Structures are given as C-alpha cells and as structure tokens.
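anyone seen this seq b4? input:
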Amino acid sequence: MEISLSGIPYQILRKSYPQIFPSLPEYFSSLSFKEIKSLILIYDKEFLEEIKVLNSYFSFKINVQVGTTAEQIHELLSISPTYTTLSNLQRKDNCIDLLLFKEQIQEILQNFPFKKENLYVKIEGDPEQIKVASKIGINQIEIEFPFPHKEEKEREKFEETMKIANKMDLKIAFGKGMDFENLKILLKKYKPQELIVDYPFYNISFKYGIEEGIKYLNYLKKEL
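predicted toks r here
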C-alpha cells in the first residue's frame, strides 16, 4: 500500500489567508517525500505558477485534480504533472459522475496525450461507477464514500464496490477526510492500493511541526 498526501486542505487555507500561509513551494519544500507516492493538488488558476514550480524543481511527484473542460486540460498539459485525476470541480466532493460524463471523458482520452497508467478518475464508491471506469480504460480510481457507515445499505454498497474493483483488477485509492481511528478500522478489512492522507497530517503539522507530520506518514506506512 502506497501513501499519497493531499495538499488540497493547504491550498484552501492559502487561498483564504494568503498573508498567513506561505506559497505551496515554500511550505512543501521542507517536506521529505521519499515514502510518499505523490502530492495531490487541485486545479486553480491562482495556483498554476506555484504548481509549476513544485512540479519542475522538486523531487516528489504531483497529482493534479482537474475538471474536464478543454481549457483546464490544455493548462494542465502545460504543467505536465506525473499524475492527473479527472474530476468534477463543480461538486463539493469533486467526484465525477461517469454515467453522465462517459462520452466526454472518452473524447478527452482520444484527443489529449494522457498516459493511462498515470491517469486517475475521482468517483463515488458505487459499483456502477466502477464498471464504467473499467469500460473506458481507467484503472486507477479515487473513491469517496461515507464512513463509518450509517446504514447497512451503505456498507453493502461499499463492499460491492470493492468486490467489483478487485475482480476487474482496478487500483483503488481512498482515505480522504478520515481520521486515524477510522482508518485503522477500515483497513483491517479493506486495503487500497493507495491511501490518501489529508487532515490528520495538517492537524499534527500545525500543532507540533512538519517533522511530526512526516513521522505520522511514515508510521501509517509501517503500521497500516
């Protein structure tokens, strides 16, 4: 299981309080990413130059969540991050409905030079969404789902999603928004190929320092 760090919470803070929070390169340059698969960021015109610097001059790999408009795709390709996650930036959870956007994504794959092994799609944890992702040839998928499950049908839906993903040999990433205790519970039964860490890292880093945040990431990699 690989671990990726979401930089999106920091982007939100930087956008809201630019006088307090330093630039993305300044903040993330002090991190050691030897144990991390990628730093996940979200497309935002205000941050394009900062993302370019991160992508060009630092050793860690960048994964940019981007919408499906031609303008955003063209700007993304000018940055050329290692990984790209197709998403719906108009939704709060950034998940894209593949049942509605299937043809649009197929056009993107035909018209833009994406390497499929470096391409993700962000969707709800839903069996039908998983099936469509497989049909259009995307095998790396970030899923969002409620946890702890509030109802039995939520648990059944998630289990079916994971079952189909494993059957189709898809690589699943999840973990966004989860605290350490919930991660421990979930990972006892389900192991994604990629674990995404966000708020717990910043809670620790802002309170005790970045080095402690890095220790937390390394602990997760070893213990979970």
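The chain has one domain: 2-223. The chain has a mean pLDDT of 91. kinda curious what u guys think
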